[in-house]
TrEMBL record:
Catalysis: reaction(s): 2-phosphoglycolate + H2O = glycolate + phosphate
Record protein name field: phosphoglycolate phosphatase
Family matches, as InterPro entries: HAD-like_hydrolase_sf (IPR050155), HAD-like_sf (IPR036412), HAD-SF_hydro_IA (IPR006439), HAD_sf (IPR023214), PGP-like_dom2 (IPR023198)
Pathway(s) this gene product operates in, as recorded in its UniProt entry: Organic acid metabolism; glycolate biosynthesis; glycolate from 2-phosphoglycolate: step 1/1
An example Gene Ontology CC term for this record: cytosol
Keywords of this entry: Hydrolase
Gene source species: Kaustia mangrovi
Family from the record: Belongs to the HAD-like hydrolase superfamily. CbbY/CbbZ/Gph/YieH family.
NCBIfam families given in the database record: HAD-SF-IA-v1, HAD-SF-IA-v3
CDD domains named among the record's database cross-references: HAD_like
Uppermost EC category: hydrolase
EC number(s) per entry: 3.1.3.18
GO biological process, one term: DNA repair
Length: 249
């Protein structure tokens, strides 16, 4: 990654699940409950539904890029209940979203101590901060509020805030519109290829992968300008790159 790239960055757009919050700790129990509901209480069928949606039982986590790890509730309903008509599908999505919003108010677990990291970035006066998630916007708002960091973000954008969810570029464009930025001035930080593909499609200035979610280094490296352990390493990355810039005069 070229150090000079950081000179132009004025916005930091974070994915939520796996980037700001621990995905399995926050959501696994809820998705197990969803699967059991769809399976009509049949535990074996529920286990197969979870596997279909990306759950790796041996690893105890969801696979990178899977429907649950990177998709929307619309994607999940279409996967698990493909024969539903339009109204029934809409109702099923609404049910899931409502349960996620309720759960988000009580079970979100951060990947690290978010407040000093985000507060430090905001305190520089250089960056606008945003969240782009394939979760619904209200659920994201509730998660961030529970963790005490909602006020640090200038924009929270969910799948229901835009026409197209990740990996389409819409969320980056929405963030830019709200914050008066150009895509080239935005760094996108995420744990899945959907995040980096969204950034590439939008023409974002930087694509930064994190290993705090579902993906390994080798999953992210082909499309990322940098891969870090988690967002607590982001301030140091920015400082290091800035320090490498040629001095003027």
């Amino acid at each position: 990654m070229a150090a000079a790239d950081w000179q132009a960055i004025r916005g930091l757009l974070f994915d939520k699940d796996g980037t700001l919050i621990d995905f399995e700790a926050s959501w696994q129990a809820l998705f197990e409950r969803f699967a059991l509901e769809v399976a009509g209480g049949d535990a074996g069928h529920a286990a197969r539904l979870l596997e279909q949606a990306g759950y790796d039982e041996a690893a105890g986590r969801f696979r990178a890029g899977s429907v649950i790890a990177a998709g929307t509730t619309v994607d999940l309903v279409e996967l698990w209940q493909p024969d539903l008509d339009r109204e029934a599908r809409k109702a099923a999505v609404g049910h899931m979203d409502a349960q996620i919003v309720q759960t988000a108010s009580s079970t979100a677990v951060a990947v690290c101590d978010l407040a000093p990291v985000l507060g430090g970035l905001a305190a520089t006066g250089r960056f606008r901060l945003g969240v782009a998630t394939n979760d619904a916007a209200l659920s994201a708002e509730r998660c961030l509020a529970q963790l005490g960091v909602r006020d640090m973000f200038d924009a929270v954008i969910g799948w229901d805030s835009v026409e197209r969810a990740k990996p389409a570029p819409d969320m980056v464009h929405a963030f830019c519109q709200r914050c008066g930025l150009e895509p080239a001035e935005v760094a996108v930080i995420g744990d899945n290829m959907h995040d980096l593909e969204m950034a590439e499609a939008a023409g974002a200035g930087l694509r930064i992968g994190v290993l705090s979610g579902n993906s390994a280094h080798d999953d992210l490296a082909p499309l990322a300008h940098a891969v870090i352990e988690d967002i607590s390493h982001l301030p140091r990355l920015a400082e290091t790159q800035a320090a490498a810039l040629p001095k003027e005069g």
